[in-house]
Amino acid sequence: MSVFRVKFTDGSRFVQIDVKALNEVFAARRADQWADGARWRRISVTRVDALAA
Q1: Cβ distance 42 to 29 under 8 Å?
Q2: Model confidence at 45, in pLDDT bands (50, 70, 90)?
Q3: The pTM is what?
């Protein structure tokens, strides 16, 4: 498991969440589930634990 930072925007605001997942695809899916029904649009998925090493 790795930690990924997923960033969203709604046009004027930004929000980011950290997600534990196996890879970027699963992190994006989980983040999209979190934002389900909202107007947030995913703009990036970055692996965080690799940046800290």
Answers
A1: no
A2: very high
A3: 0.82
